[in-house]
Automatic annotation (TrEMBL), chain A:
SUPFAM superfamilies: Phoshotransferase/anion transport protein. PANTHER family: PTS SYSTEM FRUCTOSE-LIKE EIIA COMPONENT, PTS SYSTEM FRUCTOSE-LIKE EIIA COMPONENT-RELATED. Residues 8-152 form the PTS EIIA type-2 domain. PROSITE patterns: PTS_EIIA_TYPE_2. This is PTS system, fructose-specific IIA component. The lineage of its organism: Bacteria, Bacillati, Bacillota, Clostridia, Thermosediminibacterales.
Automatic annotation (TrEMBL), chain B:
CDD domains: PTS_IIB_chitobiose_lichenan. GO terms for molecular function: kinase activity; protein-N(PI)-phosphohistidine-sugar phosphotransferase activity. One of its GO terms (biological process) is phosphoenolpyruvate-dependent sugar phosphotransferase system. This is PTS system, cellobiose-specific IIB component. The modification Phosphocysteine is found at residue 8. PROSITE patterns: PTS_EIIB_TYPE_3 (PS51100). Residues 1-108 form the PTS EIIB type-3 domain. InterPro entries: PTS_EIIB-like_sf (IPR036095), PTS_EIIB_2/3 (IPR003501), PTS_EIIB_3 (IPR013012), PTS_sugar-specific_EIIB (IPR051819). Keywords: Kinase, Phosphoprotein, Phosphotransferase system, Sugar transport, Transferase, Transport.
Length: 159, 110
């Protein structure tokens, strides 16, 4: 947790851009791989099982080419968020919704009140603004994406 | 100030929709507070914030009966967000339905 506070919610290390993926499964696999590399996930197959359990309940397409797969899992070591931008849009769900930007966040089981979660909540609240999502879709460097996301995660809520 | 609170597993995915509803409310000068929370915190939020309307995300619609039971002792309407509205992140439609839900609830109480 302390680590995240110092480095911010998302650094360039948490971001993949220009990803040559052709399916949702490929994209989720790449993100899971990254989470393992970052030390946020301990067991990739177990973690993927939990992510797909949540996916089976639907509604992780968030409009405007954005998807937000997520889940609590005992295979998550610390709260983290990772980002993947695809080279070409991919089909996300059975409705045929297209996605270019994927933001995945993961939370250790039993840590639903953590500080990191607050920041992720604020990030998603900011992403309710269509313009905010557009800016992320237009950003083409890791640095710019990280900067935007950190800004969104630290925007003070009105209430 | 009417408090419309959205609940899902973590209150993350619904927070995007909450923001859209809040923005629509502001555009029409409606005194609203729309927020998203984790369903796990339901009782705590009820005690602390005393919301006027509870909406569940469609991804937790299976918790509707359970949620109604948990809210038995509170005089508050509970609804499930329409999955088509949710899929489109249509803040305006969800807000309209929430306002209707509160109106009907009030009528029944009279």
């Amino acid at each position: 947790m302390g680590n995240m506070k110092n480095k911010g919610l998302i650094t360039e290390d948490n971001i993949l851009i220009d990803c040559n993926v052709s399916s949702k499964e490929e994209a989720i696999d790449k993100l899971a791989e990254l989470l393992v590399e970052l030390g946020a996930v301990s067991d990739k197959p177990g973690f993927l099982k939990d992510i797909y359990e949540r996916e089976s309940r639907g509604f992780t397409f968030a409009g405007d080419y954005l998807a937000i797969p997520h889940g609590w899992s005992k295979h998550v070591v610390r709260t983290a968020a990772v980002v993947l931008k695809t080279k070409d849009s991919i089909v996300w769900d059975e409705k045929g919704n297209l996605v270019k930007l994927i933001i995945m966040f993961v939370i250790p089981e039993g840590d639903e009140m953590g500080q990191g979660l607050k920041m992720i909540g604020q990030l998603f609240s900011s992403l309710g603004d269509v313009e905010a999502v557009k800016k992320l879709l237009d950003a083409d460097t890791k640095k710019e994406i990280a900067r935007l996301i950190c800004n969104y995660a630290h925007t003070k809520s009105k209430f | 100030m009417k408090k419309i609170y959205l609940f899902c597993d973590q209150g993350m995915s619904t927070s995007m929709l909450a923001k859209r509803m809040q923005d629509i409310g502001e555009k029409h000068n409606l005194p609203l507070e729309v927020k998203a929370h984790s369903i796990k915190t339901l009782e705590k939020i009820m005690e602390e914030k005393n919301p006027d309307c509870i909406l569940l995300g469609p991804q937790v619609s299976h918790l509707f009966d359970d949620t109604k039971k948990r809210l038995e002792n509170y005089n508050v309407p509970v609804g499930v967000i329409d999955s088509a509205d949710y899929g489109m992140m249509d803040g305006e439609r969800v807000l309209k339905k929430a306002i209707l839900l509160m109106k009907n609830h009030k009528k029944r109480g009279e």
